[in-house]
Amino acid sequence: MKGFSLGKAFVPVVASIALIYLLIPIVHVIVFSFNDAGRNNILWRGFTLDNWQNPCGAPQVCTAFGNSILVGVVATVIATVLGTMIALALVRYRFKFRSTISLLLFTPMATPEVVLGAGLAAQFLLAGVEKGLGTIILAHTMFCISYVVVAVKARVASLNPAIEEAGRDLYASPGQVFWRITLPMLMPGIIGAALLSFALSFDDFIITNFNSGTATTFPKFIYVSALKGVPAQANVLASIVFFGALALVIIVQMVNINKQKRLQRQ
Description:
Elements: H1 6-32, H2 50-53, H3 61-92, H4 98-104, H5 107-110, H6 113-127, H7 133-157, H8 161-169, H9 174-203, H10 206-211, H11 218-225, H12 232-265
Helix pairs in contact: 1-12, 3-7, 3-9, 3-11, 7-9, 8-9
């Protein structure tokens, strides 16, 4: 065929296949949230809206989901605050062992989760700490801090010091410079790091399984239920999370587009 190029068609075709492959599990989750499952949710038995009308119908599903939300929010807040302060200290200040600390911060990111989870479980056991939601939050905070530091550190390094210096020249106190100039400029990086931390915490299973004790989170609930088929109500909650994240991305993109249009008009 005239004008047809195998090289030009290869990339779009492969990209389309990869996209379809990635979306198939998501589509399966959404579709089977409407399944009239009964005792298992492996085979399609018919369409129903009962699962969406009663998403807490399966035993412990909403408890596990609520635990994941709680752990994710608390771990994200702690990790974001501590990680932001560490990132500012590493970029703005010179102190002893600074390079060593920067290197060690990558250790939780580079360590396999099974090793990290087993190590934390051993430490909690030696310390005599009872496993539960508290140990899960401590474990998640530990590995989330590394991601926050990396993300915020890059943002701090990209700031123009002249802007902060201009604030000082206008007789602003150090606190006013931080809250009115530095923090607003860091906020996109901080928000991105917080969202990443929450996603990692909410999704984690391996470290959670080692350090949860009798507490159940949403990934742990799904793992235990997988043998007989994940309850349709779990699919409902997973679909809600997916659509919520999708809506958040769309809203952020629309806000950015509106900002760009306003700047162009000005």
